[in-house]
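Session log. Operator J.P. requested a structure for one protein chain; no other inputs attached. Running the standard single-chain path with token output.
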Amino acid sequence: MAKTQLNVRVDESTAAAARRRAHQRGLSVNRYIEELVKQDAGEAGRAFVDAAADFMKQYESVFAEEFGAPAPDAPAGPSGGSGAGAAGTERRSRRAKPAAQGKR
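Structure written below.
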């Protein structure tokens, strides 16, 4: 991994807080900031997935009308059973499809 030097100016109280928190965690200030950036990116990713799921739920009827109802073996969601069995079935069917397509 290439290292890049970043010259950033922050006020002294922010710099002191960063040094203190990095020291408390046993990290360099650079490593502490790197972890903050990764954490922020992870939170943004989770927010995106949550927003996408909300969008799909809100427009579920529109998608069903446009593309039809889910296949009978598709997981039914939270009220459709234990969840583990449905996910297992879904995984098996995904693996089976590429093999069937390869025979064509």
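Operator note: The mean pLDDT is 76.
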